[in-house]
Amino acid sequence: MASEDFLRRRLERERKARKEAERLLEERSRELYYINQALEHSRDDTIRAKVYLDNIIASMNDALFVLTEEGTIKSVNRSATQLTGFGVGTLEGTRMGHLLYRSEGGEINVQDMESLDVDIETRHGNVPVLVSTAPFYPGSGEEGGYVCVVKDMRERVAAKRLETERDVAKSENQAKSVFLANMSHEIRTPLNAIIGFSQLLQASPLSDQEREYVDTISQSGEALLTLINDILEMSKIEAGRLELSLSVVDLRGMLDKLCRSFEPQTQRKNLQLHLQYDSPSVPCVQTDEGKLRQVFANLINNAVKFTERGEVVVSARIEQGARGRATLHGEVRDTGSGIGEHELSTLFEPFVQTESGRESQRGTGLGLAISRNIVQLMGGDIAVSSTIGKGTSFYFHLNVEIAAESGVERNCRSDSTVVDTSEYNGVRILIVDDNGANRLLLWDLLEPLGFQLHEVANGEDAVLVCDSWHPHIILMDMAMPVMDGYEATRRIKSKPDSRDTVVIAVTASAFQEDYQQILESGVDDFLAKPFTREQLFETLRGHLDETTHAARGKRSVEPLDAPALTSLDEVPDRLLDEMRDAVKGGHIERLTSLVDSIRGAAPAFASTLDQLAKEFDYAKMLAILGDPDE
Amino acid sequence: MKGIVFTELLDMVDELFGEEVTEKIISDSELSSGGAYTAVSTYEHAELVRLVASLSRESGLSPEELYKAYGKHLFGVFSRDYGFLLTDMSETFSFLSNIEDYIHVEVRKLYPDAELPTFSHSLIDETHLELEYRSRRAMGDFAEGLMMGCAEYFGDNIVILRRDLSNGDGTCIQFTLEKVL
Known about the structure:
The complex is a heterodimer.
Chain A: H1 2-59, E1 63-67, E2 73-76, H2 78-84, H3 88-91, H4 96-99, E3 100-101, E4 115-122, E5 125-136, E6 145-152, H5 154-203, H6 208-238, E7 247-250, H7 251-261, H8 263-269, E8 272-277, E9 284-287, H9 289-305, E10 311-320, E11 325-334, H10 341-344, H11 355-360, H12 367-377, E12 381-387, E13 391-402, H13 406-413, E14 428-432, H14 436-446, E15 452-456, H15 459-469, E16 473-477, H16 485-494, E17 502-508, H17 515-521, E18 525-529, H18 533-548, H19 573-585, H20 588-599, H21 603-614, H22 618-624
Parallel strand pairs in A: 8-10, 14-15, 14-16, 16-17, 17-18
Antiparallel strand pairs in A: 1-2, 1-6, 3-4, 4-5, 5-6, 7-9, 9-13, 10-11, 11-13, 12-13
Chain B: H1 3-17, H2 19-28, H3 45-59, H4 63-81, H5 92-97, H6 99-110, E1 118-125, E2 128-134, H7 140-154, E3 158-164, E4 172-179
Antiparallel strand pairs in B: 1-2, 2-4, 3-4
């Protein structure tokens, strides 16, 4: 009743209170859940931030040292352990000042580490570094300290040293080049005399023993001259003073002639020498003929030198590009003994010779270096590949320009002298030489000009052909079997029908020839071997005028005001005397200036003297200058 | 006011006056909560005032006497249920000096939204402590009861004097406690 009521009410209140408590509990649980979530996110954020920061520090190239306020290492990054080679445990707790070394010595205070160029101690010795330190204030109640970044300066130091060394080497090199250039001039002058006078001696009567001595002196002089020229070339290259002189070149013709000049050697060694020219549509290119020949000559020379059997193949190919530009691909391949791989890399260095090169004791070791420089100067490069026992191939490429106009083409075929071939139809030239190659050379040179040609191999045949064919000009080699040139000339000149036949003695520039004998045999002119195309034409031209156009009279190719001097008679005696003196005294510079003085009036004569002077053929020069002693 | 104040009061009424009296004062007080209190919840202070007023009518004791008695009783309850709060204390004055800095801090851990009076203290000497009580609810008698309960717990003989600093509304009272040795 009342108590039941009472109990019921109480129970009811209890139940209500319980429910309320439960509700509050659930509410609180939910609150806790969200708080927990937030905490976890916050924790994840913190972790992420920490990982991010850790990664940054670990990725630094530079070493990072966190120091206490006193300068003791508190923590380091990975680069710090890598740089020093010490472990984390070793580094932590060490004073930073103990790791750093100044040349003056003494421990460095952390306050002085703001920016330092010092050495740091590592496991493998001291290393130059750049130290950069800054204080930091954590601001969270933690202790502050210093952040010290250490940068490895080894590479920079090494690079600096290298640069200095390079500069020093460069200036040393330049000084050397200047010195060499000066010296070589000083050396040349007496060398001229040595060569010149030994040539003179060779032309005079000597005993066999004496001749042997003089030959040796002469050859040594020549070798020395080659060396000086090579060295001078190298020094010019190093000083960057090598210039290209461009002209239109009959590439095929040049290579032909070059290969032919090696025939004596290849024949002697029983080697095949082939020329493969692969650009029939491009006969002429514009390039530096001399330098190009030099490169080919050097490579062919090496190939022939180092090949004992088999063949040497010279190939050239023009690869046409845009706007008249082209690339010349040249190669000289041999079946020689090959070059070892260890030598290939230094082959193009100056003064390096292969083992076999050194063994043969010839060459200066500069040829390939010069060739490479020339090729590079012409916009290309050179390389080598070789197999021991099989052979070697030197191959290069360089830039040339295509000479496209037809007028220019003709020019290149005839070496910048305009030749009207029609004028020479009907002119008959007889080529007399016992050497087939020599005959072929002359034939190839003369045939395109429209001459009618014939060739014989000895003096006797020459006389016979002269009788039957009546050549206008005979190019006569003097040393031949059966009947030599002297005898043939004498016979031809003695017959009235053939007296006026122009006989041009084609003589070797070797020194055994008796020039007196030549002149006495009655030749009209002579041409010294090896002769250039210009020299051949100059020589012929003088006589062609006589032969074909008597009315034209003697004149030189360039129209000049002064009369052309084609014979000695028209050069003043005084001048001849002075030139002779200059030659005898080895005063080349004086001779050059004297020759210059007649160059305008007698270009052919002057150019002949130039050529002889270049070859140091003083005997010949004296002969030409009409030395009374000769 | 936290529910615990209500639940313990009703338990005390049960104990001292009997369950029927509890029932009576609840029904007499017109409580919006209906008298269903749980310690962890929060209820209006006005309900407490009504309950005590009703109890005063039933028991014949004045509200002041009832508040004091309840305060003393409640300290005992606290000392049993939250004994860990007292373990570092050795006597009354040290406990009372730490109400603000320690006790109330712990209270807020459990009941973050508890509205608690603020105490400032100054220890005059070994035997005299001044406590300044401030509260909107002006429960000075209740506070005095708690202090008496505290003294009894520590076994100290304390004489409590009070002075109203608040122009009679009891919201700021200065208690001076004298330890009688």
